[in-house]
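Handout, page 2. Input:
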Amino acid sequence: VTPVPGPGGAVAAVLAVSRDVTGELAAREGLAASERRLRFALEGANDGLWDWDVATGETWFSPRWETMLGYAPGEVERHVRAWERLVHPDDMPGVMAALGAHPGGRSAQYEAEHRVLAKDGTWRWILDRGKVVERDAAGRPLRAVGTHTDVTARREAEDRAREAAALLEAVLEGAGDAVFAKDLAGRYLLANPAAA
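Output:
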C-alpha cells in the first residue's frame, strides 16, 4: 500500500497492489513436508547423509554422518579431501574403483563397504552408497549425494563366525574319532577324515 499525495501534501488516494501467494505457500509447505520425511527416514535408518559438489570438492556431511564416527557436528572439514583422509589406505583402491565406475555409467550407483577412521582412532566399517544427481551438458558429474551406514557390528559378527568355523574345522580335522553329521534324508552334511 502506497499513499498518493495530492495538492497541499494531503493523501489524495491510496495505491494498493495485491498478489495471490497461495501457490507459493503451498510449495513452501510441500517442501517443508518433504524435508521432514527425509529427516525422519534418515533418523529411522540411523544413516548419515553426504552431498558432494564434484567440481569444487565441497562436501556437506549431515550431523549423523559425523556423530557415528565420534565427531561433533561441523567438526569434519567440508571437503571431499577430509573424507579421503578418513578412508583406510588399504580400502582406498576399491573405493576409488567403485566411485569411478558410477559416473561413467558402468554401475547404476556408487556402493562401497570400507573402513573409516573414527575420532577415537578405531576403524568403523561403513556401507557408503550414492548417486550422481546432476551433470553438465557434456555429461560430466556435477553433484552426487548418498548415505553412510555403520555396518561395524555386522562385519565383526561375520569375522567371529568365520573364526568359529575355522576352529571347528581344525578340531574336526585333528580328531581321531569319526565325526559326521547327516540330515533327516540320510545325506552327509559333514564328515571328518577319520569318518571318511
